[in-house]
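call fold(seq) -> tokens
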Amino acid sequence: MGASEELEYLKGLVAQLNRKIDTLEAKSKGPAAPTPAQQLRTILVGPPGAGKGTQAPRIRDEFCVCHLATGDMLREQVAAKTPLGVQAKKIMEQGGLLPDEIMVNMIKNELDNNKDCKNGFAQKLDGMLEDRKEKLDSVVQLQIDDQLLISRITGRLIHPGSGRTYHREFHPPKKPMKDDVTGEPLIQRSDDNVETLTKRLTAFHSQTGPVVDYYKAKGLWHGIDAAQSPTVVWDNLKKIFVSK
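ret:
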């Protein structure tokens, strides 16, 4: 390559670099992308099997937010056999709900330490959020008949590694008891039986009713018919979040 050709080549590289610099400068001067905390903060309320585990990952991915699933957090504690996990396992197997203080502190710990929540959840919960100078945008209740729930849950299958859910009748895996993505074994939770579910639903209705009434009074509550297909439920969820 002669001197003149090399010079032209270098000029071309410089021009490309200048265009790249101009593009990056233009982007840096635009409005800063909102953090997850600024975008959406909502609570999904619903009994076991109402579809929280189906919809929450879609909310996380669509709106770029941190997803905290109290059931999953509890199961992690149980698997690790922590003091909380030992206590939780006993209560969960009996179909009970854990005390408010334990749940709120567990959520606070996740908000403080979960790397996915660094940028961004009843009165005790409001107090914790107020301390963090944050507030709720909405509380969405997935509403469904108890008998349909029992039918859903007793056939539910879980992939422990990812949380993906299947159903023996309504959404079976491609291969029996195998995850469609990894091929790893699926499990059925020990508390997914009729007796335990009946107790859990009784506890849910008696203890969640006052919480729902509280958020209705604050104008944050929205109800969705969770007996509809997951796609229809998702469309209704998006309407609530986009209009907030």
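The chain has ten helices and five strands.
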